[in-house]
Amino acid sequence: MTAMSEDASDGSAGDADDLTHTTEDGDVQMVDVGDKPDSERRAVAAGEIRLQSSTIEAIRADEVGKGDVLATARIGAIQAVKHTWETIPMCHQIPITNVDTEFALDEDRIELRVTVETTGKTGCEMEALEGVTTGLNVVWDMVKAVEKNDAGQYPETGIENVRVVSKEKDRI
């Protein structure tokens, strides 16, 4: 896995000299952001979980046996955002100033968008991605009993299209 410098603003990955998570000897290291100025940062990530339409209807009607699916997923997403530094190696612990979660229910899927804001020395897109993936995993966990087929498999269930929608720095 490689990382590019946040200073590469043209969208290119750069060359080996731009790698920030390895030493000259190729050892993994945490990036030193100590000299960077604090700035306002915001990242939005999204993803979706594909479900049976009957499961979507049960969620809408709050008839899932484990409880309120979206409320529980929201809590899971927020907790994941706050603990990203503990699960992603080399990720800095950053001061989260705001987390917003937004669910959109369709006939056969739920989309989750997680917006994370911080004021600090590094971005928050990993936090937004962690919020999305955990929030969707919580949805799956809450509905797995009704999503399983007779063989105990999940042929219609899937987490898809997880992505960073936007990333902003120094926004006013």
Automatic annotation (TrEMBL):
Residues in coiled coil: none
Pathway(s) of this molecule: Cofactor biosynthesis; molybdopterin biosynthesis
Gene3D superfamilies per record: Molybdopterin cofactor biosynthesis C (MoaC) domain (3.30.70.640)
Keyword Lyase listed: yes
Positions annotated to bind substrate: M90, C91, H92, M126, E127
EC identifiers of the protein: 4.6.1.17
Enzyme class label: lyase
Annotated Molybdopterin cofactor biosynthesis C (MoaC) domain residues: 30-169
Pfam families: MoaC
Biological processes, Gene Ontology terms: Mo-molybdopterin cofactor biosynthetic process
GO-annotated molecular function: cyclic pyranopterin monophosphate synthase activity
Role of this protein: Catalyzes the conversion of (8S)-3',8-cyclo-7,8-dihydroguanosine 5'-triphosphate to cyclic pyranopterin monophosphate (cPMP).
Family: Belongs to the MoaC family.
Subunit structure: Homohexamer; trimer of dimers.
Protein name per UniProt: Probable cyclic pyranopterin monophosphate synthase
Provenance organism: Natrinema pellirubrum (strain DSM 15624 / CIP 106293 / JCM 10476 / NCIMB 786 / 157)
